[in-house]
Design a protein that fits this description.
The complex is a heterodimer of chains A (about 260) and B (about 450). Chain A has nine helices and eight strands. With about 260 residues, chain A is α/β, with parallel strands linked by helices. Chain A has a single domain, classed as Alpha/Beta hydrolase fold, catalytic domain (Rossmann fold). Chain A has an eight-stranded mixed sheet, with helices on both faces. In chain A, helix 2 packs across helix 3 and helix 4 packs across helix 5. The two termini of chain A are about 20 Å apart. The model of chain A has no long low-confidence stretch (mean pLDDT about 95). Chain B is α/β, with parallel strands linked by helices. Helices cover about 45% and strands about 10% of the residues of chain B. An eight-stranded parallel beta barrel of chain B has the order 1-2-3-4-7-8-9-11, surrounded by eight helices. Chain B has a two-stranded antiparallel ribbon with strand order 5-6. Chain B starts with a strand and ends in a 6-residue tail after the last helix. The chains are: A alpha/beta (about 260), B alpha/beta (about 450). At the A-B interface, helix 4 and helix 6 of A face helix 6 and helix 10 of B.
């Protein structure tokens, strides 16, 4: 399995940040969700066997205190394209996003519809169905999250916290500070309802698109995957069994296989 | 020393099993618990109590803003304040306050506060809270990480709207207005005294000190818990080399006065326990959405409330715990006076927001406690801070010849019934001065 290393990247706007880069093959840019991304992400390391993976860290999710640079959907969308441009590349990139990252990726593909090769949306945020309201992640307590985000909450809790003990005050404080920066930034496009009117622009997506859902996803349940399929012309969907919202952590092999099958010529 | 009689306006009929059957008293409270016909009487009872406090000689009467909240049926304090401005003419009208980040555009607050100041003859004390996460983020949908930024812009707009004499264009991030031209303007110049309710973030302290606004620590945890926070505030005052006027700080305290300490428990314990057991049952997930607090504040703060076992804390508190822990200052007049004097000196505060009506306390007990306080406690504490006699930065400045509606209403009625209104009340400059002191400060 290929490994990813941390590099520094600076956008044309002058915003600096971390990115995890590795592997070989065509360029694949991965945009992480509100949970963040790490160098040992099991999905990315598998994708890196077939692609050159570029996984930038959003403002607010790394050590750089750059989160005031992104305040609304257009800021995130253009920052996404600035990041793509910052990674040296020859051909049109494949863009993959997870959850909030998928929401941004779909915006990017709507705004600059000819600037990417293919699009993969993993349990994408960004849609809202009145009759199927999704849980409010922002009103959830740390110990309640795994239940919503994972097929297997016990395993999920360990994956989310890295084994940290929330009954320990220092561990809780460390988590809360990081969570405040991450989710505070994510809230700019996800709070109070994760809908920034992509439905007015989504018809512009013109590249082959795969939407991947988790069969047990409590945050973006399967009915939302159907809506995405119906909204993006010509898109296909794939459901991962025994996976919740964090399918890249819970079922990385099955998720990687679904992506590779879609991307293989 | 200023004493403000504050009413949160709680809903008094939350069921005994409220905790067990409801996730939260705030945001997603069961709206079927609200009975509009019951509330008809309740609003009038609560407003009558505020007017009673004016009659009893309190320096101010206080209202605040909460939304979707079982202990506060006052989403628009300005409506209550307008009623009070019309039915009282002595006490300051303390609106603590309007959550200025919630108004689009916030020029609305500049206008309504100006109206209140004008109607009341310059009696407005204006509060500008950032707003609780429950109100601001979860009820009114503001994005947590942008709330403070939006608040700062709203503050700038309101203060400019009051200060400028010519229409001006305001090109803000959240408000773009081509013609800002506040009409009416407040009586008090350059603006009514500003009180900033806060919970302990250093950013709010610095904001108050930069502008000479009163920092109002409004919590229900009482003076013993508040000491640490106010100590931090006064340290910050010293660090920034500001004068240490007690007028820079105020504090909210639950106060229950009876004839004796024993009677206080007998009369008030059940109602205070109703408040702590039911009214403070807030889902902790609503209390701290990521992005609302700054990282600095989280690091300094206590996170115990987020832990599963601590969510039940208030459930087991007894009257003894509440009194000994300083959550409540309760007892006979001597007990209350001694404890309050100590509190005022220890916290170094120029204004006390006294919470007299709490939970499901009936009207007669509220008035009993209020009257005992006004007659047997307040007078002895009025002059704790001699330096405030000449420091008029922290309180309102009513005009002396303001309309006094309780008299004008009476004379209008008299005219309708054929009585010579001149025989009712002659308000002379002498009388006005006697009522309000020589410099017209109440």
């Amino acid at each position: 399995m290929a490994t990813l290393e941390r590099i520094r990247v600076t956008t044309r706007r002058g915003i600096e940040g971390d990115a995890f880069v590795g592997g070989s093959g065509p360029d694949l840019v991965f945009f992480h969700g509100a949970g963040g991304v790490t160098a040992d992400d099991p999905l990315l390391t598998q994708l890196a066997d077939s692609f050159t993976v570029h996984a930038p860290v959003w403002p607010g999710f790394g050590p750089d205190e750059t989160e005031t640079s992104v305040e609304d959907m257009l800021d995130f969308t253009l920052h996404g394209w600035d990041l793509v441009d910052a990674f040296a590349r020859q051909d049109l990139p494949i863009v993959v996003g997870h959850s909030m990252g998928a929401m941004i990726a779909a915006e990017m593909a709507s705004v600059a519809r000819n600037d990417l090769a293919k699009l993969v949306l993993l349990t994408p945020a960004g849609m809202w169905i009145d009759a199927e309201p999704t849980p409010d992640l922002f009103a959830m307590l740390p110990f309640e999250m795994a239940e919503v985000l994972f097929h297997d909450p016990v395993l999920g809790e360990k994956l989310m916290t890295g084994g940290a003990d929330f009954t320990d005050n220092d561990a809780l404080t460390t988590f809360m500070v990081a969570n405040a920066r991450r989710m505070g930034t994510a809230g700019k496009i996800l709070f109070p309802i994760p809908n920034r009117r992509l439905s007015k622009r989504i018809h512009r997506i013109g590249v082959p698109t795969l939407v991947v859902g988790g069969a047990s996803d409590g945050l973006v349940p399967p009915v939302y995957i159907d809506l995405w399929r119906d909204s993006v012309a010509g898109s296909s969907t794939h459901m991962i069994e025994a996976a919740g919202h964090m399918l890249h952590l819970e079922q990385p092999a099955a998720t990687a296989t679904a992506i590779l099958n879609f991307l293989s010529p | 020393m200023k004493f403000v009689w504050f009413n949160l306006m709680p809903w008094p009929d939350l069921p005994d099993d409220f905790r067990e059957t409801n996730r939260s008293v705030w945001v997603d409270i069961d709206s079927k618990l609200f009975d509009p016909e019951r509330a008809n009487g309740l609003y009038h009872e609560y407003m009558d109590q505020l007017e009673f406090a004016d009659e009893m000689g309190f320096d101010g009467i206080g209202v605040n803003e909460h939304h979707q909240n079982g202990y506060g049926i006052m989403p628009s304090p300005n409506i209550i304040a307008a009623g009070l401005a019309r039915r009282t003419s002595n006490a300051a009208i303390c609106v603590i306050g309007n959550s200025i980040a919630l108004y689009n555009p916030p020029i609305r607050v500049a206008e309504e506060f100006a109206m209140l100041d004008v109607i009341s003859g310059g009696r407005l004390v204006a509060g500008f809270p950032v707003g609780t996460p429950m109100d601001t983020n979860f009820c009114y949908g503001q994005i947590p990480a942008l709330t403070r930024d939006k608040y700062d812009e709203a503050h700038e707009l309101i203060m400019r709207a009051w200060a400028e004499d010519e229409p001006f264009a305001f090109d803000g991030k959240y408000n773009q207005l081509r013609y800002v031209n506040c009409w009416p303007k407040p009586i008090q110049k350059p603006h009514p005294p500003i009180y900033i309710p806060g919970g302990g973030s250093i950013e709010t302290w610095d904001f108050c000190l930069e502008h000479d606004y009163n920092y109002s620590y409004l919590s229900f945890n009482g003076h013993k818990a508040g000491q640490v926070l106010l100590d931090g505030y006064w340290e910050r005052v010293a660090e920034l080399d500001k004068d240490e006027s007690p007028g820079r700080a105020s504090f909210a305290q639950i106060i229950c006065v009876a004839d004796t300490d024993e009677q206080a428990e007998e009369l008030y314990a059940e109602h205070i326990l109703y408040f702590f057991n039911r009214c403070l049952h807030v889902h902790p997930g609503f209390a701290d959405p990521p992005g609302y607090r700054t990282v600095k504040t989280i690091k300094a703060g206590k996170l115990g409330g987020l832990r599963k076992e601590n969510q039940e804390m208030f459930k087991t508190l007894t009257w003894k715990d509440l009194v000994e822990g300083g959550f409540v200052i309760a007892g006979g007049p001597d007990t209350v006076r001694e404890q309050l004097e100590q509190m005022i000196k220890d916290l170094r505060i120029g204004t006390v927001f006294g919470l007299f009506h709490m939970g499901d306390m009936p009207d007669w007990k509220t008035r009993f406690s209020t009257q005992l306080f006004a007659e047997k406690v307040m007078p002895a504490l009025k002059n704790i801070w001699p330096e405030l006699e000449t420091d008029d930065r922290w309180w309102c400045h009513p005009i002396e010849d303001r309309v006094r509606p309780e008299y004008t209403i009476e004379s209008a009625r008299a005219m309708a019934t054929g009585v010579d209104p001149a025989s009712l009340h002659q308000i002379t400059a002498d009388q006005s001065a006697a009522d309000h002191g020589p410099e017209g400060v109440i």
